[in-house]
Design a protein that fits this description.
- With about 240 residues, the chain is α/β, with parallel strands linked by helices.
- The chain is built from six helices and eleven strands.
- The chain has two domains: about 60 residues, no CATH class; about 150 residues, Metalloproteases ("zincins"), catalytic domain (Zincin-like, 2-Layer Sandwich).
- A four-stranded mixed β-sheet has the order 1-2-4-3, with helices on one face.
- The longest helix is centred in the middle third of the chain and has 31 residues.
């Protein structure tokens, strides 16, 4: 069972796992704090670690709670959706044919069979967004493989609630959030570069920052743009 620590008025959930290092995460929407710690680590040691990270925790909680969120979508006609940073109006077209999604000049066309329920419409658009990221990421990985002299073994694209992307330096795999297809294209490139740099610098340390400054000088600006963009609506469950 997880243990709970009270640190500076913040509840911290502690889970002992088969890991080598401590992992601290702050989860949306309200900033729930969770620490995954090695099984043999004493709780007092975890407490000291959490205390040392209080400024970081509070900063991330504040930013998370202030982040704008999209309203819940119903996947009906004239509803606003974003693709690569541009706003489109959804048009649902019912027809007796396999479902498709097409991008028009100002419309996002969703072709479905008559009577298709909201959940299925949402699923179809989610799959389409995932395919958008998959298509866009291939040339970016090729470009930065050459520039950084690193090799990405596999790229996974999936819905992620708490991260835009992640990297596993040991396996050489990176993961990207399908929601990136809704943001400007430079946001996707920034996340790709960010995760690929982690193949060279595993932590957000001085070496990581130096590499980002050298190969992607505008990364701070793009990061700010991405973080300022509204997040997807979620029915958050724990």
């Amino acid at each position: 069972m997880p243990a709970m620590l009270g640190i500076g008025g913040i509840n911290v959930e502690v889970v002992k796992k088969d890991v080598k290092n401590v992992h601290l995460t702050v989860h949306p929407p309200e900033g729930r704090v969770r620490i995954a710690a090695p099984k043999r680590m004493q709780l007092d040691v975890v407490r000291l670690y959490a205390i040392s990270k209080l400024p970081w925790i509070r900063r991330h909680q504040k930013a998370m709670r202030a982040q704008a969120r999209e309203t819940a979508r119903e996947y009906i006609d004239r509803e606003s959706h974003h693709v690569w940073g541009q706003r489109y109006l959804l048009r649902v077209v019912e027809r007796e044919a396999p479902a498709t999604v097409e991008l028009g000049q100002n419309e996002l066309l969703l072709h479905v069979r008559p009577g298709t329920e909201e959940g299925r419409r949402q699923e179809l658009l989610a799959l389409w967004y995932r395919d958008q990221v998959r298509t866009a990421v291939a040339p970016l990985v090729a470009k930065w493989t050459s520039a950084l002299k690193v090799r990405v073994k596999r790229v996974f694209v999936q819905r992620m609630k708490t991260k835009w992307g992640s990297c596993n330096p040991r396996s050489g795999n990176i993961r990207l959030n399908t929601e990136l297809a809704k943001k400007p294209r430079e946001c996707l490139e920034y996340i790709v570069v960010h995760e690929m740099v982690h193949l060279l610098a595993h932590h957000h340390d001085e070496r990581f920052t130096s590499l980002m400054d050298r190969c992607f000088p505008s990364w701070r600006h793009v990061r700010g743009e991405l973080n300022a963009a509204p997040l997807a609506h979620e029915a958050w469950e724990y």
